[in-house]
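README: folding subset

This subset contains proteins for which both the sequence and a predicted structure token string are available. Records are stored as plain text. Below is the entry for Glutaredoxin (106 residues), shown exactly as it appears on disk.
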Amino acid sequence: MIEVVAFLPVEVGVCKACDLARNVGIKATVSLEGNELSQLLEILAKLGERSVRFTNPMSLRGLYLMLKYRTGKLPLVIYNGKLIHSGPINATDRDKILEILGTETD
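--- output ---
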């Protein structure tokens, strides 16, 4: 299974008060967007039908995975329990990820 730890393009608050303020019409959240998500989706589209799990880094599981693999660089790409990439994705990294994920079978 492939697991990706990355911020998805959603609005989040950094605390419970931020989320509560949003309920009464005060904008205290930030919009998280990035080029990494489009790069990841491009890579995953080339792989065909594979099981992929997206994990928010602000969740307990996301925090656990960042601690387990000792990195805070996002996105993390994990394949069968092994970290294969962390940090921003450039063209060289994209090719490396495709090579690793494309040659291995589930």
